[in-house]
């Protein structure tokens, strides 16, 4: 049985072989220096994170990278092992150990009796979801600077729904749509998408880059390379998480109030409120769908917005008209722009539509443009009646 010091020494040697450019500041792994013993002591003083060795998945890769966003774990070394005695010395353990106990900082989900879900959701958590559920608010505050409150809570829920839950579902074998339901509906995939997910990217890191690369290497050498691949995978997933979080914090969250104002003013452009006008481009779809759900029923007011108008750059420049999708992120629209306009441009579109200043309408009918706001509004108003 290997003692903790041996595992840490090996971990330090493994990490020293990983190029530093692979790890942006928040994802830097402990590395050796000209004085490894001194560096090791510093690393041991930081909370030791443990996870399992062997084939790795997206959930523990994300769990480790999320922890390292917090000041507490920023310089924490990582031990990858299935040795229970070594894991017992770790401050925090994810995805191994058959224990879920936040007080003990144990976050495994493989035990038979485990049924924990994120509040308001039905998907059983993975190690990623467990870490996010307990540390997510602190992570959001650390990365974005948001203080506790309604905005942070809104972002906390949004990031779980749009990003983390898919990791939980993937690791627990849950499909977005049950295969039996697809079969019953007589539906089949139009193309294969198994290689298109973050989970599939992480899985690729499990394998050596060239045929026969592992032949003749010692067990320790193979473990060094496996740990290096895990570090790369964890860095990759962590970067995706931070990009998602900062984009939502910097763009999605501030847009909420602007979309709400536009939603409340929509009747001035169409007596049924089917046109939404934004004074600048912004992520509007999530907020629109939520506002529609929250809006009280009104006589003569349509339950849904059909077209959204927004400027390409400034309100004085060109404007876009966008058909609203039936569902968030879907490709089927509530009402396409008119068939006769699809794929037509410039003067020809002016003639077909009877509206001056047209720029284009996409062949799929989901978006178009005009030289100014008045023209885009006229396009939207006419499209409603066709």
From TrEMBL:
GO terms for cellular component: cytoplasm; nucleus. Pfam families: MYG1_exonuc. It comes from the Eukaryota. Belongs to the MYG1 family. This is Metal-dependent protein hydrolase.
């Amino acid at each position: 049985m290997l003692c903790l010091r041996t595992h840490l020494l090996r971990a330090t040697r493994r990490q020293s072989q990983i190029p530093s450019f692979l790890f942006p500041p928040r994802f830097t792994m402990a590395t050796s220096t000209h004085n490894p013993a001194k560096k090791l002591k510093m690393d041991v003083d930081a909370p030791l994170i443990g996870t399992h060795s062997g084939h790795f998945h997206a959930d523990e890769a994300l769990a480790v990278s999320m922890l390292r966003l917090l000041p507490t774990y920023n310089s924490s070394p990582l031990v990858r092992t299935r040795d229970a005695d070594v894991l017992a010395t770790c401050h925090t353990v994810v995805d191994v150990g058959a224990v879920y106990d936040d007080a003990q900082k144990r976050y495994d989900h493989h035990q038979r009796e485990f049924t924990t879900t994120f509040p308001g959701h039905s998907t059983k958590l993975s190690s990623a979801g467990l870490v996010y559920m307990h540390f997510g608010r602190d992570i959001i505050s650390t990365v974005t600077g948001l203080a506790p409150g309604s905005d942070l809570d809104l972002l906390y829920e949004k990031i779980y729904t749009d990003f983390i839950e898919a990791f939980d579902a993937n690791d627990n074998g849950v499909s977005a749509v049950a295969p039996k339901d697809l079969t019953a509906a007589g539906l089949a995939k139009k193309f294969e998408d198994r290689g298109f997910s973050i989970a599939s990217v992480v899985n690729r890191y499990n394998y050596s880059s060239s045929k026969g690369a592992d032949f003749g290497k010692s067990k320790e050498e193979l473990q060094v390379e496996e740990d290096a691949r895990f570090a790369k995978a964890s860095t990759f997933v962590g970067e995706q998480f931070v990009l998602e979080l900062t984009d939502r914090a910097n763009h999605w969250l501030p847009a909420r109030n602007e979309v709400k104002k536009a939603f409340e003013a929509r009747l001035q452009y169409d007596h049924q409120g089917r046109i939404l006008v934004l004074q600048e481009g912004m992520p509007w779809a999530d907020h629109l769908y939520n506002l529609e759900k929250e809006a009280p029923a009104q006589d003569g007011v349509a339950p849904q917005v059909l077209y959204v108008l927004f400027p390409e750059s400034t309100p004085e420049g060109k404007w876009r008209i966008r058909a609203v999708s039936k569902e968030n992120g879907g490709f089927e629209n509530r009402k396409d722009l008119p068939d006769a306009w699809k794929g037509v441009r410039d003067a020809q579109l002016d003639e077909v539509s009877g509206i001056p200043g047209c720029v284009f309408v996409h062949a799929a009918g989901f978006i178009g443009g005009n030289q100014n706001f008045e023209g885009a509004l006229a396009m939207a108003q006419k499209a409603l009646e066709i």
